[in-house]
Amino acid sequence: MTFGALPHRHASLVAIAVLLTLPVSALAADEPENDDGLSVEGSVRARVERIEEEFRPSKLPDETIWSSRTLVKAEYSTGPVRLAGELLDARAYGIDPGSTASTSTVNVIEPIQAYAAFDLGDVADGWNTRLQAGRFTMKYGSGRLVTRVGFSNVPTSFTGTRVDLASASGDKISAFWTMPQERLPRDAASIRDNEFELDREGSDLQFFGAYYQTRLDGIGATLDLYGYGLTEKDRSDRATRNRHLFTPGLRLARKPSEGTFDFDFEAAYQSGTIRTSKADNAARQDVSAWMLHAEVGHALRGQAGLRIAAVFDAGSGDSQGGDYTRFDPLFGGRRGTFGQTANFGPLSYSNIVSPGLLVSAKPNKRVDGSASVRLAWLQTASDSFAKTGVSDPLGNAGRFAGAQFEASVGYWVVPKVVRLSLGGAYLSKGRFLEDAVNAPATGDTRYIVSDVTVSF
Questions:
Q1: Residues whose CB falls within 8 Å of the CB of residue 371, separated by 6 or more in sequence, listed in order
Q2: What's the structural domain count of the chain?
Q3: What average pLDDT does this structure show over 10-19?
Q4: pTM for the full model?
Q5: Residue 418 falls within a domain, yes or no?
Q6: Which stretches make up the Alginate export domain (predicted)?
Q7: Residue 20 has pLDDT above 60, yes or no
């Protein structure tokens, strides 16, 4: 179902009305008369972003984006059954043709969750079992390959079923089969006008897998093992590259703790097949790609809550001829690894080699912040660099992409209710981002983001 484009003035009024009425109705439903197990929670976030000297081709060189995001989630529990639904309303204002705003920024009045969960108790010996069916969001392990994003406006939803088992000793097993939501509308004009269209899912895109986590008490760490499968095929109104991917991986991690060293090592390999283009008669290639994350940190003693970490991330890029070797990050999040994303975010686990240094602090319950610096190279000189869309097919622009500096700070004005955030980033372009054949003729990129979030 699609509504026609509203004039910008009217679209803004509709957005404001939605943002005002959704929280009011939710709060009214969340009054003490909920002996039946009903609970309602949500948040409203207003954000402004400014990017100057854009690094992506064919985009506005300078742009300011105002956006809003409202989330309302209701749950009803009765015995071993839990019913849940969550509504998202994400909009952007004042955007022009050539904007970086996309379906990650705008998704108007979308039910991102609507599921039933059943606590089946001790079905397997010593394992508590939970079954979930419907539409839901997911996060596994580090979230680098499957997560519910929070920094960007629009999280990915999945329609399907999953089963989760937990042992008394803390081990976890999960298996799922889903159809990821395709965010609609996709065209730039509809996104600019905040048009409403329900997302879709179908058997043409399926995502499934299994995840296992066990505790290694001897070293105070956890070990994750996983395997994710993705299948894709054309449909009448949309051509694809017919991805058929299998991504096994493992992660060994120890959480930060004051006065001790922590670590996080993760690696994944990707195999399968993909077409060389979206053309129906395009040749099919074998896939052989990989990603790697390594992090060693130390949380200092003291009231500042200071942690310093050395990080290294890499993802394979595609070389001409032979297997397809560009790593696909699936449905992962980038904020926790690569810094500011939203309508910035040049870095990802595709064709990158990036060492860096991260410093974070949490001096009290109200204030937290972080800062990082990263250098970045292309893993393959002839492939597109990370999320930039910049490429040099002959490899004449070299491999050095540049350096990214970023920082953010958050402050709870009212703990757990009102939060202010401010962040910024600076991308010092290296030779590749300056000399590649489709690199925009702009200088170093500057980005700032500020938002206020009210939770209820």
A1: 358, 359, 360, 405, 406, 407, 408
A2: 1
A3: 37
A4: 0.89
A5: yes
A6: 38-439
A7: no
Report the DSSP pairing between strands 445-455 and 221-232.
Answer: unpaired
pLDDT (mean) for 244-267: 97
Stretch 313-333: mean pLDDT, rounded? 95
What is the share, in percent, of the chain residues with pLDDT greater than 90? 86
**Assigned domain for 46 exists:** no
Is residue 6 scored above 90 in pLDDT? no
Domain interval for residue 233? 118-181+199-455
Three-state SS string over the chain comes to CECCCCCHHHHHHHHHHHHHHHHHHHHHHCCCCCCCCEEEEEEEEEEEEEEECCCCCCCCCEEEEEEEEEEEEEEEEECCEEEEEEEEEEEEECCCCCCCCCCCCCEEEEEEEEEEEEEEEEEECCEEEEEEEEEECCCCCCCCCECCCCCCCCCCCEEEEEEEEEECCCCEEEEEEEEECECCCCCHHHHHCCCCECCECCCCEEEEEEEEEEEECCCCEEEEEEEEEEEECCECCECCCCCEEEEEEEEEEECCCCCCEEEEEEEEEEEEEEECCCCCCCCEEEEEEEEEEEEEEEECCCCCCCEEEEEEEEECCCCCCCCECCCCCCECCCHHHHCCCCCCCCCCCCCEEEEEEEEEECCCCCEEEEEEEEEEECCCCCCCCCCCCCCCCCCCCCCEEEEEEEEEEEEEEECCCEEEEEEEEEEEECHHHHHCCCCCCCCCEEEEEEEEEEEC
Q: Rounded to whole angstroms, how far apart are CA atoms 431 and 345?
A: 19
pLDDT tens for each residue of 176-188? 999 999 999 999 9
Q: Looking at residue 363, which CATH number applies to its domain?
A: 2.40.160.100
Q: Model confidence at 123, in pLDDT bands (50, 70, 90)?
A: confident
List, for residues 282-306, the tens digit of each pLDDT value. 999 999 999 999 999 999 998 889 9
Residue 300 lies in a domain: yes
> Residue 126: which pLDDT band, with cuts at 50, 70 and 90?
confident
420/369 Cα distance (integer angstroms): 12
